[in-house]
């Protein structure tokens, strides 16, 4: 674990001092400024107010307040963040500054040290890095899950399967066990990984991904994969919950009183990536969602998952009584040989590899869905060389 000394803390805040002439691409300093401002925006959206100064405030709120003051004071910072400042935070005057004193790096460093340890606060070896502080905030930040009714039956089913022995708990061991559809026990709560964004490499050269994690008490968190991994390792009672024995995948029509479970969707990209543009008619993204397809693809132009471009919905298939994650995994397994190996730069120029894009004719996808419905799909795999589904020979 990296340690942040006094000079490191001062250096982090010094990022908001006047800079040299801005270059065409984001510099490391500009990336840190943007990331720091996104922390402030997230605070504003959660608290409905700007971070404020004051000894009675949380230490992180006070740090955000200092950071916001410095951003407001620098013209180059305001210019850099103008497009991201949808709430007008950089134009607002500082509020809640009663009793505000000149910013004291030593005092702030001591307080941060005290957060980590009850030992002598003059010892800075316990001060956390910026990444660790963000991770701690993510762990603590749990919001009300507004669509919990959609997930509640999953938790009830898991509890029943644990009671019947269809599922069991095991010690958590590998980061690879964290995947969409996986269940864990963290802090005494059953925890469900509902979504995972594209895997990326963080500043320390380690792989990570943003998750949507649902807890059985009706809350959720948008934590990082490594944050969940850390919680599972640090919690003596932390466990993973095994998958149950597989059963029928889905029915093609709903039974009486059975709610629709999800939608298989097929998307076509409007990206100008050379390979995608040349093969647009056969390059498709295949996924399964338990919600609205329109909501799922909202903001596609800003997400590397969708190649940072708009998408066209070319086909949808309603499914009932289905485990959406298992169905999606099955489809991706069937078409694994046709999965694209594309790398695109994100907004900071870091290369990411979007998943779930395949070079497959639409008629073959239609055939695969039909074979899923008649349960014969387990005997087939897609052959890119022949452009069709082929029966597996035992």
TrEMBL record:
<feature type="domain" description="Bacteriophage T5 Orf172 DNA-binding">
    <location>
        <begin position="278"/>
        <end position="372"/>
    </location>
</feature>
<dbReference type="InterPro" id="IPR018306">
    <property type="entry name" value="Phage_T5_Orf172_DNA-bd"/>
</dbReference>
<dbReference type="Pfam" id="PF10544">
    <property type="entry name" value="T5orf172"/>
</dbReference>
<protein>
    <recommendedName>
        <fullName>Bacteriophage T5 Orf172 DNA-binding domain-containing protein</fullName>
    </recommendedName>
</protein>
